[in-house]
Amino acid sequence: MRLIKTEDAEGHVLCHDITQIIPGKFKGRAFKKGHIVKKEDIPVLKSLGKNHLYIWEMKENMVHENEAAEFIRDIVMGNNLKSGEIKEGKIEFISECDGILKVNRESLLEFNMLGEMMMATLSNNVPVKAGERVAGTRIIPLIIEREKLNHAKEILKNRSIVQVIPYKKKKIGIVTSGNEVYNGIIKDRFGPVIEKKVSEYGCEVIGQKICPDDTEEIYNAIEMFLKQGADIVCCTGGMSVDPDDLTPAAIKRTNADIITYGAPVLPGAMFMLAYKENKTIMGIPGCAMYNRITVFDMIFSRTVAGEKLSLRDIAEYGDGGFCRGCDECRYPNCGFGK
Ligand SMILES: Nc1nc2c(c(=O)[nH]1)N[C@H]1C(S)=C(S)[C@@H](COP(=O)(O)OP(=O)(O)OC[C@H]3O[C@@H](n4cnc5c(N)ncnc54)[C@H](O)[C@@H]3O)O[C@H]1N2
Ligand code: MOO
User: What is the Å distance from ligand 1's center to 245 Cα?
Assistant: First the structure.
């Protein structure tokens, strides 16, 4: 910080706010801390009685917070994002489409360990909407050495930290099992729940088949939808441990690769994920019909964005995988699945 004469201040950065008072009319900030003094500001500053100013010296190697924010934006912002207006050195990223937010968590950690700069994002893998603010970054001081910014660029090695993967329109087959539903003792209430959810991601339901608790029939229905071109087959019910729960066996019968039977998410423990070539088969437990958000929403959204999940991806849900069961569900504005 240095004290200088106002007439020498052009191009320098103000270290403090400058207040203007017009009796009876206005009292407020005429110039903000961080403002870069322009030639035309000098007479205004003098008219406010400011003949001297505290400024940050803008040496060759120093970068102002606004320019630094733009520099950081260019190195961390990935696909399907746009930046908002820079405000007081802060820049935010806005999603340009509906999709899944991908955060390179290791790079984000490395970046945030550098000091004098920060970046905060929504959680990795959350669904985001077009127009939603998803991340923000800024430097901490008013000015920063250019070498520090260049160092950040170097450690990122041309990999962005945050991006959005848009949903692709997928074809969905629904296989609903349960003797009580098949025999008309109760009305199917699972199909409409799945249909509503998948349509929110722009997917098309190509059909639903209601099966009795019979492995062969459930298996045949899955194969039928795969042959009809379904990208994802959603099997509902029959996922737990009683003798009539045959859906896992039927999915195994297709010879698909079983990624998991069981997920560290409550509700959703009895979930199954399997891949047959580039097609996905999900075994969705009964809780997905009852609870507003379950493991199904998390895995389905990522699948629609084109991701193929590993056992590790599923296992990572354990931390944050316990739903609080609030009276009024606020998901995604809570820690569930984050
Ligand atoms: N002894 C145990 N019991 C349960 C366990 C367990 O580990 N040990 N797991 C519980 C968990 S967790 C869940 S989730 C449910 C799993 O349910 P399922 O997927 O096996 O569901 P079903 O047994 O087929 O049905 C449960 C319930 O929902 C009704 N249902 C099913 N499908 C439909 C439909 N299409 N439309 C309307 N209603 C439907 C069904 O009639 C049952 O009442 O299991 C826990 N139990
Ligand atoms: O698959 Mo069930 O959570 O865990 O209700």
Answer: 8
Q: Is the CB of 34 under 6 A from ligand 2?
A: no
Tokens of 12: 């320098």
What is the reported pTM?
A: 0.87
Q: For each of the chain's 338 residues, which pLDDT tens digit applies? A: 788 999 999 988 888 788 888 888 888 889 988 888 999 999 999 999 999 998 877 777 888 888 899 999 999 999 999 999 888 789 999 999 999 999 999 999 999 999 999 999 999 999 999 999 999 999 998 889 999 999 999 999 889 999 999 999 999 999 999 999 999 999 999 999 999 999 999 999 999 999 999 999 999 999 999 999 999 999 999 998 787 779 999 999 999 999 999 999 999 999 999 999 999 999 999 999 999 999 999 999 999 999 999 999 999 999 999 999 999 999 988 999 98
For domain 62-166, give the CATH superfamily. Pyrimidine nucleoside phosphorylase-like, C-terminal domain (3.90.1170.30)
Q: Distance (Å, rounded) from C-alpha 42 to C-alpha 48? A: 10
Question: Which of 270, 284, 294 to mutate to test ligand 1, by most ligand atoms within 8 A of the CB atom?
Answer: 270
Calculate how far, in angstroms, residue 287's C-alpha sits from the geometric centre of ligand 1.
7
In CATH, what class is 171-318? alpha beta
> Token pair for residue 104?
């390179």
Contacts for 121 with CB less than 8 Å, ≥ 6 apart? 101, 103, 108, 134, 135, 161, 162
**125 CA → ligand 2 middle, Å:** 21
ipTM here: 0.92
CATH code for 2-56? 3.90.105.10
The most distant pair of C-alpha atoms in the chain lies apart, rounded to whole Å, by 90
